[in-house]
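Morning!

This is the sequence you dropped in the shared folder:
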Amino acid sequence: MDVDLSSWWPFASQLGVGLVAGFAVGFALKKVGKLLAVAVGLVFVIVQVLAAQGFVTVHWGEVEARVDPLLQVDSLESGWRWLVGLLTYNLAFAGAFVPGLILGLRSG
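The structure's back. Tokens below.
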């Protein structure tokens, strides 16, 4: 059976580009997320030190009331759908981009 590979090349190249682009974006997002986590942790430590020294008063109940809705499952799922929709907008290779994105997030 003789297969003409030239007819498959555009499809294969789109999948390859989508997978590589998705991986790169996922890898970068995870690195930025780690950096953001370090920054949030440092801000927390600074606020706690200032509170312990009497410079500021933190109302943790109010902080929790404002942050808790952002951490609900519905909010996180809608945020993920928004991010994937934004990153795959108008991409011909979106089918390969999402698995690459997930691989990049896992390995970054």
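Headline: The helical segments are 9-52, 60-67, 73-87, 94-107.

More detail when I'm at my desk.
O.
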